[in-house]
């Protein structure tokens, strides 16, 4: 195989803010290309400051191990993931990007989209979850402006402010669409116990990561009293976390970059469902490439948050349609082998 990689910077339409005041105007990502003859596979790993993940750091590690990666014989993506997992034991984001590119390449070699390789059915009659549209933290006026500018069937609202209830109350006055909220571990147990019943009365559908990732005592109390389903995000990163989270949450949000790729995500979905949990797959503001990887899991998911390309003003691929059958957020079946999209240099939407 031939390995190529580079940094990508894509701008957001609006500055993107989550709890604790973390704001960004662009998403920086590592892009990977694996080539074998006429076949080419792409992968992506976004740089995330609060996980201390930088593109420069990932590129440095790639250069060190370039020869070993290029010598690998890609006959099984799962075997490739195990090789990468041992090669980069402390860098799940980098492993994910390579694992994604490996699956894309292998799917093209086998002339199948990934969802077919995973023995799932996805056609125009398949019931797949609708992708939400995320409203990052802002002033209430600005959040209303964003919502009005982007009519959507489902909104995901970032919370973790001292005006959370006022925010949802104001949004609810202007839409009857389902609202999901994500506190990004921004609440105390006491805050969550007070806010969740009010949010339920305002028609909120679910709550993602209400408490700090290791506040198990608080989550135990919250799960027994919550009027809304609770989904783990920061508390559920790797495969080993699924069983633990089953005791404290109603569902999990799997992030491909955090769990180290498509290969472990397949196992996490299977385990979560066996434990009676709902499964969401979430975004870390991936571009078209990373979002297409998420889309391949749609037939297996209960909820999906893959709106990175919707939040950006530039795209880096074609083939990912978010408005199938004239329904915003309903992703059209991907039929091209591999990830199902074609890479393009970033271009204006």
Topology (elements, then pairings):
Layout: E1 2-18, E2 22-36, E3 39-46, H1 55-71, H2 77-87, H3 92-110, H4 114-117, E4 133-135, H5 140-149, E5 155-158, H6 164-172, E6 179-182, H7 189-201, E7 204-208, H8 216-225, E8 230-232, H9 240-245, E9 251-254, H10 256-259, H11 262-274, E10 278-281, H12 288-295, E11 303-304, H13 308-311, E12 314-318, E13 323-324, E14 327-328, E15 342-348
Parallel strand pairs: 4-5, 5-6, 6-7, 7-8, 8-9, 9-10, 10-11
Antiparallel strand pairs: 1-2, 2-3, 12-15, 13-14
Helix pairs in contact: 2-3, 5-6
- Largest beta-sheet details: 8 strands, parallel
What is the strand content? 15-25%
How many domains? The number is 2
Secondary-structure element order, N to C: EEEHHHHEHEHEHEHEHEHHEHEHEEEE
Shape: globular
Q: Low-confidence segments, ≥5 residues, pLDDT <50?
A: none
Distance between the termini: 32 Å
Structural class designation:
alpha/beta
Overview of this protein structure:
The chain is of the alpha/beta class and 349 residues long. It has 13 helices and 15 strands. The protein has an 8-stranded parallel sheet with strand order 4-5-6-7-8-9-10-11. α2 (77-87) runs antiparallel to α3 (92-110) and α5 (140-149) runs parallel beside α6. The model has no long low-confidence stretch (mean pLDDT 96).
Please name the defining characteristics of this protein.
single chain, 349 residues, alpha/beta, Enolase-like, domain 1, TIM Barrel, 8-stranded parallel beta sheet, 3-stranded antiparallel beta sheet
